[in-house]
Amino acid sequence: MPYSFLTTFREGLEAALIIAIVLSYLRRVGQGRYSRSVWTGVVLALAGSLLVGGLLQLLSIELPGAAMEAIEGTAMFLAVGVLTWMIFWMRRQAATIGKHLRDRVDVALKAGSASALGMLAFTAVGREGLETVLFLFAGVAVSKSALLYWLGAGLGLMAAVALGYLIYRGAARLPLKSFFTVTGVALIVLAAGLLTNGLKEFHEMGLIPSLGMRVWDTYDLLPDNSTLGRTLGAVFGYDSSPFLGQVVAYVGYLAPAMMLFFFGHGGATSSAQSVSSPRPKEA
Amino acid sequence: MKTLHLVLVLAALLLSLAACTVGSGREIGIVAGERNSNPAMYFEPKRVTVRAGETVSFVVRNDGVVDHEFESDEAGIEEVIIPARGTRRVAFEAPSRPGEYPVYCDLTGHRDAGMELILVVE
Fold first, then answer.
1. Residue B6 falls inside a structural domain
2. I need a surface site. Which of A15, A89, A103, A135 has the fewest CB within 10 A?
3. Is residue B10 part of a domain?
């Protein structure tokens, strides 16, 4: 049971964080109607993972490691793309808030935004969804009690969703200025982690022949196959012995993204004054 | 007060995650690597025997010059990367059902090149 609990909790956590931040953001900017696109992405990813996983299990087809890595790596890069768009779209909106509307944030989403948000939710949930389903199906065959096993898996998923909900509620209480800053930074860190994990997946399947040397080894300090290490890996891209290419990509994404977010034209710092207007009504 | 509760819950959660250690029980040494003869890649020994439900620690040493993985969906061992010249410890609770389970390296071409051992559960 602890095994299935930890598996679903860890894999669900990152998706729950992303979904919570996106839903919270949509609500704060008065675009709650786009939540439907997000939920559609979530449901499709969950249903797709269960359907494909179930079919493969029924037909006893083993998905080669390279196929799994291709699916995960592609989903990660897609998520990084949409997250980056989302972060800078949020930043632009933050810069104009308060200029035209004194007491309510109401920004227009451009055509295509709904499908992009749906895609983000789909990739966030589907990224590890299929692998988790396959791993759980394989594991139940050797578990002591199938009932306890599935109970653990359900509880793990619920714990991840509960944590996401707490973040959603907590974010709703933040003053708007802090909300934009905290969620923007959180999304940048999550995207940087996804980028480095995506590189690793593509390297493992041989699509990227080399990522250079391994630059350090903190395995003895925090093993990446421990529960905490795996959780940090899923959420922040932690790797106890990363390749140089991963570190360069992480810093190369994180540093300019943070600089642009805080100091770019209309960034979080310059928009601080404009968003300090009266707290918006919740949509 | 609610924030304090939330922080305490999160701290407890993190501590419980950290408390899950990566190694306990009997140690079983495994060596991974490559060689010029056939098969070109290997895990040694080729068969490992454990008791049903036994908790063991695999200490996997990679003597090769490329990275390898150690995993088994069938036996419930999550993927662990063993860097070239590196050693990784893998905690494992054996399945409750006796049988033979494959443990392998799932990097492209490695399993086909011979990187598989049989875990015998008695």
1. no
2. A103
3. no
